[in-house]
Design goal:
With about 260 residues, this protein is α+β, with helices and mostly antiparallel strands. About 35% of the residues lie in helices and about 20% in strands.
Length: about 260
């Protein structure tokens, strides 16, 4: 029940986040890591507070036009979100900047739920990726995440349906392209006969696309773990690009 990431580091992280950011986390020694491929086992979507979304999306012309196309004359994304998913909107709440406002949407064995950033970042290693997409695509991803809130966990890892979801499936579905709105082309790989996206493969994609015109994501923040010193420390893009290659139990073989 301990993590290497500190409350001070989470406060720094909070100041850097924007709605639509993708969070990747790893918790050392978790038994659930056994059944998940690669170093990075988990992902979540930062949906932000109402105030953060207003600041991020409020003045964007593309977002306002898209909202009006869906029958909300104000063009206000918050009005659209509240009208579409009032229960989830209330859960996300007007409490806004309070320290433990539920601002992260994730899928765990309990299902798709809103949790505080402090809970999501209670980890040993963490990275934040920001899609290189127009804000309307980020807004749509947030809207889709609210749409999926309350759905059960997908123990079958079936990306062909969205009646239940795993953590990476939430990201995949949130940023799935549609006509007139760009999305992410996340990689699929076969695991136990299923075509799925894994968090570790997202990082591999980032590594392979980095510096190219095809690059889809930017690294905003990376906290790496040092088990020997019992601390998480801020690291850079070079180390992050290599992180997907680490053995699942790298801490047993790494020379720290």
């Amino acid at each position: 029940h301990q993590s290497l990431i500190t409350e001070a580091q989470i406060r720094t992280l909070r100041s850097l986040l924007a709605p639509g950011d993708i969070l990747l986390t790893r918790r050392e020694w978790y038994l659930s890591n056994i059944g998940l491929p690669g170093f990075w086992p988990h992902s979540a979507l930062y949906v932000g507070t109402p105030q953060e979304r207003k600041a991020h999306f409020g003045a964007d012309v593309g977002v306002r036009v898209w909202v009006r196309m869906h029958g909300v004359e104000s063009g206000n994304f918050e009005d659209f979100l509240q009208k579409s998913y009032p229960d989830a909107f209330l859960r996300n709440g007007p409490s806004g900047g309070q320290s433990r406002a539920p601002t992260v949407m994730e899928a765990t064995s309990e299902g798709v739920c809103l949790i505080p950033l402090e809970t999501a970042a209670h980890a040993d290693t963490l990275a934040v990726l920001r899609p290189r997409l127009p804000r309307v695509a980020q807004a749509r991803a947030v809207l889709r995440a609210f749409h999926y809130r309350g759905r059960p966990y997908d123990f079958d890892f079936d990306f062909q349906t969205d009646s239940s979801l795993v953590c990476t499936e939430l990201i995949y579905k949130a940023y799935e392209p549609e006509p007139h709105i760009a999305g992410l082309a996340l990689p699929l790989q076969e695991i136990l006969g299923r075509q799925v996206t894994t968090a570790n493969h997202m990082v591999r994609m980032f590594d392979e696309e980095y510096g190219k015109k095809t690059q889809q994501l930017d690294l905003i923040f990376f906290l790496d773990a040092n088990e020997t010193h019992k601390a998480a420390y801020r690291s850079g893009v070079k180390a992050f690009r290599e992180s997907w290659k680490r053995p699942k139990w790298h801490i047993l073989v790494a020379d720290n």
